[in-house]
Amino acid sequence: QVQLVESGGGLVQAGGSLRLSCAVSARTFTPYIMAWFRQAPGKEREFVASIRWSDSSTDYADSVKGRFTISRDNAKNTVYLQMNSLKPEDTAVYYCAAKSRFVSGYSYWGQGTQVTVSS
User: Fold this and answer.
1) Cα–Cα distance, 36 to 107 (Å, whole number)
2) What pLDDT is attached to residue 110?
3) Per-block average pLDDT, block size 10, for the chain (119 residues)?
4) Strand partners, 49
5) Whose CB among 67, 71, 88, 108 lies 3.0–4.6 Å from 98's, allowing a Cys bridge?
6) Backbone torsions φ then ψ of 101, nearest 5 degrees
7) What is 18-79 written as a DSSP string?
């Protein structure tokens, strides 16, 4: 069974930084793509960033480009989201997700971690 366990959320002032981690529990599972999404109160879940496991190719939402960096550690089966220059509008629950190759959509999701940015 594949489980994604997120950590690293918290409260930070505007302009500050946080790093989120997402550990993939199943050693036999190699994701095709891993991603971060977020959902702010009263809003739909939105894409933040993704990374292709094979070659670390990345993609970002326009709203976070230049501020957030997604990376992965193969040995630890972990993906990270480094968030710098945080803004109050970054406040949301952040979710880690994993996608298998040849399967549409993200099959596995973490429980979410709260990020709150105060002004």
Assistant:
1) 13
2) 96
3) 93 98 86 96 97 95 98 92 98 96 91 97
4) 36, 60
5) 108
6) -70, 145
7) EEEEEEE--TT---SEEEEEEE-TTS--EEEEEEETTT--EEE-TTTTTTEEEEEETTTTEE
